[in-house]
Model the fold of this input.
Amino acid sequence: MTDAASATLPSPSGDSDRQPILEARNLVKTFGKVVGLDGVSLALYPGEVLAIIGDNGAGKSTLIKCLTGAEVPDQGELLLEGQPVSFKRPQDARQAGIETVYQNLAVSPALDVAANLFLGREERRKGILGSVFRVVDTKGMRQKARAELTELGISTLQDVTVPVENLSGGQRQAVAVARAAAFGSKVVVLDEPTAALGVRESKQVLELVKNLRAKGIPVILISHNMPHVFEVADRIHIQRLGKCATTITPQSHSMTEAVAIMTGAQAA
Amino acid sequence: MNQTVQTAPSSGSHDLASEFLDRTTPLTRVRNTLHRYPALSPAIVLVIAVIVFGLLNDRFLAPANLSLITQQVAVVGTLAIAQTLIILTAGIDLSVGAVMVLTSMVIAQTSSQNGVPGFIALLLGMVVGLAAGAFNAFLVTKFRLPPFIVTLGTLNIFIALTLLYSAGATVRGSEMPGVLTATGTTFSLAGVNITNGVVLMLLLYIAVAFILGKTAWGRHVYAVGDDKEAARLAGIRVNRVLVSVYLAAGAILAVGAWIQIGRSNAASPNAGADLNLDSITAVVIGGTSLFGGRGTVWGTLLGALIVGVFRNGLSLAGLDVLWQTFAVGVLIIIAVSVDQWIRKVRK
Done:
């Protein structure tokens, strides 16, 4: 049992020659006298789902903001595929291939599914229609959108001409995740993707996270929901008081132990 | 046992969308259709209005009367294109009429008193329109003021500038170069006299409908009006889109000034008092949502035609002009109520 589990799971801690896709080293971020991050390191390996959990004020959002360019760390380094990078704005991180799905779902309700997937990076028609008259290739983008959704295993969204506002919460989340995962992104960051969803819709989103992993796209998942975290995560980074308390796996610790570490009731 | 419990939900959740559609009643199906094609309800209203007024009075469908309606709609219809663009971004422009009048006075005065050739005068008018748009855009994007307040302020500023510049004097058409009044020249199409100004308006509608429907810029206009923050997070430069919308509106208003000079064969500093609100009326009746992100310019054209048809038909029916205004008021309230009802899809 343990052999089978370790064979299918990436075991980065024991495997030193695997290079992390995204690595943070000793990040420090202070806001005036408040220490947000007190020397946090984190490594995300290819094809894994890394969950980040922590109590309110533990520094999870600050950590995520530093990784996605929404905040600039005071000290420490960021490495993307081994190369040092620094992000000043969220667009920098996105251009480097780190896509974030925000808690408030950055989708445009009146536009259809395909238009949302390509929002901000529309493709134009070939020839004079595209170059001079700047006509967008609606048909081509719809085909690509359909292909992308199929590849991610989102079977509930085959009609890409439906306005997003006609979709359920889970389907909207799927559109947002699909947009993040499309266009050759290297890392997908999901901020509380199931917080506003019902049981059944949460399940769909968790399936989607597993599909992303199967496709080889590593995922960073921020969540308060322990059952969800334990269902999909390969490793769990527990943030406490601005530091990484420890990194565990769903196999090595129980949910109760994880919560105990998170709240400080148990030493890591 | 455990197996069946786990597989049941996944097979049952195969298509939430179709499940939702299956639950519809005829009424919600009507609502969904109207929701998808916002120009549909004004189109239905226009057809019914034309039939009813045609039955009430034989003269309504006479070529001369149809010609009159198109001419009456030309100026408001043009301003309403600019208004549609701004309302689609969840803004509103109370200054469109004032900008148009200021522009028309600049075109008329420079050509009649300073001897500027007609085409150059039109270009000067275009510059004034663009400058007015840029000023509105600057206040909306840099100071983050609500468009309602910004254009309420600039409405007064532009009215004052117009009166200061023109000294309150009207310029007659005969004092201007022929090209400026050419928008009032008519030609006959199947017995109906059409002015060049009406053709110019229709060309603007085609151009703007094409740009909104087929280009990335058009999609970004809708996205910004729909949800500004979502558009920003999707990588759209929101302020850049807003500035371009206000500039485009300014350019369209300059064309509107040209049409207005031809239509009234004069440029009067007191011409545009009603046009600000009339353009908003056309947009709203045309099914464009005041909350932004929803609507089409074709709906606006229908809205402008509905107002024109109602005013004309009621006046042919012998009703007082005040009852025409009353009817337009009722139309606005119905249009906004229908919009609210349509927007309740799925809520």
Q: What stands out?
A: Strands of chain A lie at 22-31, 34-44, 49-54, 75-80, 83-85, 98-101, 187-191, 219-222, 235-240, 243-248. The first helix of chain A runs from residue 2 to 8. Residues 1-15 of chain A have pLDDT under 50 and may be disordered. Chain A touches chain B through 41 residues (CB under 8 Å).
